[in-house]
Amino acid sequence: MSYTLTRTSMALDAWTIQTLKDLSEKWSISKSEVMRRAVRALKETAEQEDQKMDPLQALEWLQQGGGLVAEVAEQYRADVAAERQATKYWWET
């Protein structure tokens, strides 16, 4: 992987320093690489959160079918009805 590195300094508490050291040893990578991976992971998490719908968007999506195809929904209803019918006779015996 080729990228330009920029040196920086920052103040970190003792727990963070120890955690960086522990992860660095566990994964056999530098403390800087631990930081890079952590930042990438947090960025991905933030991007996923940005893609979440707000409650009104979610309600509208559900009211429009929630991505369910009509044929699949109809097949599901038929399967459930058949299963209920089979179970109904089982209980009566």
Plain-language structure description:
This protein has a domain of 41 residues. The mean pLDDT is 87. The longest helix is centred in the C-terminal third of the chain and has 23 residues. Helix 1 crosses helix 2. The protein is elongated. With 93 residues, it is an all-alpha fold. The protein contains four helices and no strands.
Averaging pLDDT over every residue, what do you get? 87
Number of helices: 4
- Give helix and strand order, one letter per element, not per position: HHHH
Please bin the fraction of helical residues. over 70%
Q: Whole-number radius of gyration?
A: 26 Å
Q: Let me know the number of strands.
A: 0
Uncertain runs are: none
Largest sheet: none
Distance between the termini: 69 Å
Question: Shape, please?
Answer: elongated
